Amino acid sequence: MLGNFTYCNPTKLYFGNEALEGLAVELPKYGKKVLLVYGGGSIKKNGIYDSVVGILKDGGKEIVELAGVMPNPTSDKLNEGVRVARENKIDFILAVGGGSVCDYCKALSVSINCDDDPWDKYFIRFDEPECEIVPVGCVLTMVGTGSEMNGGSVITNHEQKLKIGHVFGEEVFPKFAILNPEFTLTIPKYQMVSGIFDIMSHILEQYFSGCDDNTSDYIMEGLLRSLIVSAGVAIENPYDYEARSNIMWTATWALNTLVAKGKTTDWMVHMLGQAVAAHNDATHGMTLSAVSLAYYRYILPYGTAKFARYAVNVWNVNPSGKSQTDVAQEGLAEMEKWMKKMGLAMSLSELGVTEDMLDGIVESTVIMDGGYKVLDKKEIKHVLKDSL
Amino acid sequence: MLGNFTYCNPTKLYFGNEALEGLAVELPKYGKKVLLVYGGGSIKKNGIYDSVVGILKDGGKEIVELAGVMPNPTSDKLNEGVRVARENKIDFILAVGGGSVCDYCKALSVSINCDDDPWDKYFIRFDEPECEIVPVGCVLTMVGTGSEMNGGSVITNHEQKLKIGHVFGEEVFPKFAILNPEFTLTIPKYQMVSGIFDIMSHILEQYFSGCDDNTSDYIMEGLLRSLIVSAGVAIENPYDYEARSNIMWTATWALNTLVAKGKTTDWMVHMLGQAVAAHNDATHGMTLSAVSLAYYRYILPYGTAKFARYAVNVWNVNPSGKSQTDVAQEGLAEMEKWMKKMGLAMSLSELGVTEDMLDGIVESTVIMDGGYKVLDKKEIKHVLKDSL
């Protein structure tokens, strides 16, 4: 049954190969001092940095730069950003990068005017922001997280070996996002594939929960089918604009709150993947792919009907004459074949995880209760071991 | 290929059997004088009127009532609304009803502070509003049009025998919409079924255009599959909350701009249906169902691949060993079977249209150019004749 909910997603999207023109349209709505936030500097090589700085200057903005946001942004980096933003009395934050940069900027937006320690407040205590929130805009250069149109922010604390996400409300959503598929064409294949699996995982985390037959389930099946088709094209030819634009659009809708409305969700694959990354800093999508099949095969008996539906509606498994369990397992076998073809990490050992690290990873794993089976620590260790 | 576009949908939705609580949350954002707009008065029988008035009064609002908005709201009624709103210096418009009431209130919102004749300005010349727009909120009591989360407004001029829609920008979208599926349980079956086909037609108008393989196409297939399943439950048991809530949610996403993004669209079925209604005032969804099959069979040769895809992905037609044309036709045959089971109008004669009216209807038909075949007037007459 569709449960009760509210839905509001105010983020304005500019999509397409001329989307950056939207930045000039949006800038006049915000103050003069802009914090320009980016990662390792690839935007300086591909020209995006120059284009963005040109538009900011044409718009009469004063630019303060904050570079070096890492793939798993840390609480230390967050504290650095807070200091820089306060010292420069920033009016507006512009994220130029992938989901990590965007996540980081949202965490920053609720921390600049907040007296508490942001890690403790938002990621340990899960408090909601009470301070004035600095508005964020986003120029997306990497696809996967959906961070451009939601309130999610994942931050890592290496000292505590924790990687934790806080899903903020609509007041923290980016005010606008620039989605130009061309900006994503040149990222390395490993990152592209990792992003594609992040999208798939977002959908599956919301799909594999509940026994209802909601409109959301059908929308998710559509998104998955589109993703599988476009990923198949992009893995052969990463420069295929059509495929990359559909992947970008699917990513946004996979995690902008829509498909979770009115239903329960799981998120255990993300909890496992985030625990792994807190220990070895591996690429997000690859931590998810490395644990997914072991996790899904473990919980399959508790949600067989949905896994069978997945097999038929997403992977075109022919169910006739087969048991529901066989159909369900065949679906995961098809998924496994596809994952291998995509070049995804199929095991934790590929990511450098060794058996002696498992107990630590188990300790870092947040246990969610929305899936078909609430795992205990022993079961988490079992799934991780199966993923080695 | 996904074309360039912007997307922004700021409407806040409150969904579920307690959704009306959202009205009290929203009211403080708007001024004191509320124009309460509704239709024939069924909301007085089912208690919705009393609940809404109670919340308005508790919120300290002054209520001015405007009743009698008809299923195909007229330009005369629009002029009446403008007079009432001006005389009472209205701050906020609350639509309580189905799509007609909601459409009407949006037309009103851009007309109150406008000096021009609204029919001429918005529905003949398709000008955009330059005046201050009076905000609109919506309590939905009938499902189908998607009007609760878009900028569309369809107005009928009986003198000119024209029924025309203007799709306004996001500044005209309802600020919020209250979607309580329970409010829709008691409407007559004829209206429910008509609304269900309106939803299907909205999706198909956007689906049957273009030869691309966009994410939107997959989302639409998901929405159609969900609609067909839930409609099958609702036709047996209109009081099934789960089915009715999924139908309500599908209706919103069928026409809130999402699935049209980055692609072309058709809308000829609506143009034909609206021309019919301008002549005989028939129920909207039924005018669409009466012309759909004749229209789709006529354009099938120009878009065979998409019709075949529709057959397979939506109606589960097995394509093996069949020509694309046969598969495509089989899909429409499945759709016809389903339409008959739903009790939809299968011909224009059922709606009182006679052959001598056809020339007039042809004259009232606006010709769109986004479909697989741009029809000339002779072809329009042919389709209408086939629909008799």
Polypeptide structure, described:
Two copies of one chain form a homodimer. Chain A is of the alpha/beta class and 388 residues long. Chain A folds into two domains: 12-183, 3-Layer(aba) Sandwich (Rossmann fold); 189-387, Dehydroquinate synthase-like, alpha domain (Up-down Bundle), CATH 1.20.1090.10. Helices cover 48% and strands 12% of the residues of chain A. In chain A, the strands form two sheets. Chain A has a six-stranded parallel sheet with strand order 1-8-5-4-2-3, sandwiched between helices. Chain A has a two-stranded antiparallel sheet with strand order 6-7. The longest helix of chain A has 22 residues, at 215-236. The mean pLDDT of chain A is 97. At the A-B interface, strand 1, helix 8 and helix 9 of A face strand 1, helix 8 and helix 9 of B. Strand 1 (5-15) of chain A pairs antiparallel with strand 1 of chain B, so a sheet runs across the interface.
Q: Which CATH class of the largest domain in chain A applies here?
A: Mainly Alpha
Shape of chain A: globular
Order of helices and strands of chain A: EHEHHEHEHHEEEEHHHHHHHHH
The order of strands across the largest sheet of chain A is 1-8-5-4-2-3
Mean model confidence by pLDDT of chain A: 97
CATH architecture identity of the largest domain in chain A = Up-down Bundle
- Write out the CATH superfamily name of the largest domain in chain A: Dehydroquinate synthase-like - alpha domain
Oligomer: homodimer
Runs of chain A with pLDDT <50, length 5+?
A: none
Contiguous helical run count of chain A: 15
Gyration radius of chain A, in Å: 20 Å
CATH topology title of the largest domain in chain A: Dehydroquinate synthase-like, alpha domain
The tally of beta strands of chain A, per DSSP, is 8
The secondary-structure class of chain A comes to alpha/beta
Percent range of helical residues of chain A: 40-55%
Largest protein-protein interface: A-B, 46 and 46 residues
Distance between the termini of chain A: 38 Å
Strand content of chain A: 5-15%
How many distinct domains of chain A? 2
Please outline the major beta sheet of chain A.
Answer: 6 strands, parallel
